[in-house]
Design goal:
By secondary structure, the protein is an alpha/beta fold. It has one domain (2-153, 184-215, 255-269): NAD(P)-binding Rossmann-like Domain (Rossmann fold, 3-Layer(aba) Sandwich), CATH 3.40.50.720. It has helices at residues 11-19, 50-60, 77-95, 126-141, 161-168, 185-201, 220-230, 258-263, 271-277; strands spanning 2-6, 25-30, 40-44, 64-67, 98-104, 145-150, 153-154, 173-175, 179-180, 183-184, 208-212, 218-219, 238-240. The radius of gyration is 18 Å and the shape is globular. It binds NADP nicotinamide-adenine-dinucleotide phosphate. NADP nicotinamide-adenine-dinucleotide phosphate is lined by residues 7, 9-13, 29-33, 45-48, 68-72, 80, 84, 102, 104, 131, 150-153.
């Protein structure tokens, strides 16, 4: 299998590179954090540069691209997350590669959970608007793509930045009324690798959407408490209400993962099961 991972230096991208079969030919991109993995051909690539994206994909000719590159904050959300996705999807189409595009549960307004794959995005915050726009672009202009909607990504080896902040007391308040389905990074990486295998064998000619999230819906506060207990640290955060936040935030973005559980071998474990096994 020839796999191309955008954002290979990111938290999810690195897990995919680490867990992909060692006999796969893998290329991956970074911007500020060089990739130093022996079996990976690394490209310094900004997805906003359409010509550079095309060149990298023409040079490597992957069968499948997993597009994880994105920015969560800053002034370039639309340019990177939406326009950059167009560049990747267009180049994928040109070389006949299948695309797996990473989207997010925050594209929803949080008022109609649980969300299955037919749910229509209604984003509230700038990052979510850019990710919903990326989906629109992929859905409107391309046919060889799978859109994967996922939730809070966490893991311990290495620890994800958000869990580290929660345990270190750098997040003074966690919302008791904001719900997500946190996904263990290894489970998500394995599911994406399995989906890449499926994509190589059964190429699609229409957009398909798949929810890949953990099996357990939790408030951010309850998730924080479980992490603190699992790591034997004192709880350094207070409960707070998302509803009292000055700008509206999606309250409940729980994803329905029944479809993924039917078609994938990879189990998408809930937080309790992951913590009991790690
Ligand atoms: N983390 C979550 O909880 C979560 C939840 C739902 C959905 N998602 C989605 O899952 C995907 C992966 O998230 P993540 O947590 O792994 O993100 P991350 O750790 O922040 O990594 C982002 C990656 O994108 C790269 N990147 C940033 N700007 C770029 C640009 N202009 N051109 C090309 N690459 C660029 C970064 O490269 P450098 O680091 O080398 O600069 C890095 O490799 C994203 O699409 C995100 O929207 C994440």
């Amino acid at each position: 299998m020839k796999l191309f991972v955008t954002g290979g230096s990111g938290y999810l991208g690195a897990a995919i590179l680490k867990r992909a079969p060692t006999d796969w030919h893998i290329a991956a991109t970074y911007v500020t954090h060089p990739i130093e993995q022996r079996n990976v051909a690394a490209f310094c690539l900004d997805v906003r540069d359409a010509d550079a994206v095309t060149r990298a994909l023409e040079q490597t000719r992957p069968a499948v691209i997993i597009h994880t590159a994105a920015q969560m904050t800053g002034d370039a959300l639309i340019a990177v997350n939406a326009d950059g996705t167009r560049n990747v999807a267009r180049a994928a189409q040109q070389i006949g590669a299948q695309l797996i595009h990473l989207s997010s549960d925050v594209i929803f307004d949080g008022e109609h959970a649980p969300y299955d794959e037919t749910a229509e995005p209604r984003p509230l915050i700038p990052y979510a608007i850019s990710k919903a726009r990326a989906e629109e672009i992929v859905r409107a202009e391309f046919s060889n793509a799978r859109i994967v909607r996922t939730s809070l990504i966490y893991g311990f080896d290495p620890m994800d930045p958000r869990t580290r902040q929660v345990l270190n007391g750098e997040m003074p308040r966690l919302f008791t009324d904001e719900y997500r389905c946190p996904i263990f990074v290894d489970d998500l990486a394995d599911a994406l690798i399995e989906l890449a295998e499926i994509s190589e064998i059964s190429k699609i000619s229409e957009i398909s959407i798949l929810n890949l999230a953990g099996a357990q819906r939790l408030s951010r506060y309850d998730f924080g408490v479980k992490l603190a207990r699992a790591f034997n640290t004192i709880i350094k955060f207070q409960p707070a209400l998302s509803a009292s936040h000055p700008t509206p935030r999606p309250r409940d973005c729980a994803l329905d993962i029944a479809r993924a559980q039917k078609i994938l071998r990879t189990r998408l474990r809930g937080v309790d099961e992951v913590l009991a096994q790690n």
